[in-house]
Amino acid sequence: MNATSYTAVIVAAGRGERAGGGEPKQFRPIAGRPMLAWSVQTFADDPACAEIIVAVAPGGAMQAAGRLGALASRCRFVDGGETRTGSVRNAVSVAGQPCVLVHDAARPLVTAAIITDCLAALETAPAAAPAMPVADALARDGAEGLEAIDRTGLYRIQTPQAFHTGALLSAFAAHPGDFPDEVSLARAAGLDVALVPGDEANFKVTWPEDFERAELVLKTSKPLSLTVTGMGYDVHRLVPGDGVHLCGVFIPCDLHLVGHSDADAGLHAITDALLGAASLGDIGEHFPPSDDRWKGADSVQFLEHAVRIAAEAGARPVHCDVTLICERPKIGPHKAAMKQRVAGILGIAETRVNIKATTTEKLGFTGRGEGLAAEAVVTCQVQGAT
Length: 386
Ligand code: CTP
Ligand code: MG
What we know:
With 386 residues, the chain is α/β, with parallel strands linked by helices. Helices cover 29% and strands 30% of the residues.
């Protein structure tokens, strides 16, 4: 049996009732992308994986494809069943490869090593699954009180659960009922199941608190996979006054920048650049000038908000370059303070912020001192980008 070419079946048709949170857990974001996308990505990255079949709630293919973005092109969607067994049965029935690996969408932390071990085990067994020996003491709380249970030889079985496709189809045909997983079905059908080492990290996201744990592991273990940039540009009118806000620093002088907020063109350009990098629109969409809440507002809060929503979208700023274009005020003496301020808001080192200033040789509106312009480029790392 050639075990190197396989169909990945990812079951994602559950309701996620124990996890709560409104929408089914497999679509909720973890570390910047829907939970389902993490395991789809791991299988998509495996050269031995010839096809990925995702079982979704009936009628939910469009929603799932939308959540997966570009990864959806690697997947075939089938209707799941009322139970997990039903979902697996539907998906396996259209599998086109000699081996099939059935995986829970609720285990976003599956590793390439587990997949390889399962496949290797299929060279000599019709079925294989990752397993973890039980380490804690076990007890059953029954009518007679607590009954200690010997944990010797007990395992926690994870997914992916791997099979020769023909053997799994025969098991389904012979046993029409529901099973907690395919290992139980395989055993009912008398198939030998080889156990390979599981991974503590490959746990099943089940309860609300599991999201935080999965997020922590994914943020630290998965490499940042994409660098993106965004640009921003802003202009405000200059009039006589007693000082201007630029890049979060107040510069006392005989000028004033006119705007609905504090008119800090520097921070506005950076905010737009960050929103651009994270593909989140522009500052006007998030803080409409028509909204009285932003009258005279400190623009620091705009950038702080952008940092927050960019992080939710998985984008983390790593560098920022700003050009302030004006004849006056003189920017040079304030560059160090601006760098410090911007770095603080973006949560990056001061060495990753650059502030430049230029005049326009007395040409144009900036040259005539009618207005001040700012340009910014922000670079972000996107975690788990598709
Ligand atoms: N699953 C499925 N079809 C079902 C039920 C479950 O495809 N009818 C999938 C889930 O989407 C999940 C995996 O089986 O990826 C493991 O199931 P579980 O953790 O129990 O998920 P849910 O059934 O969604 O959660 P709950 O039991 O808390 O409602
Ligand atoms: Mg369930």
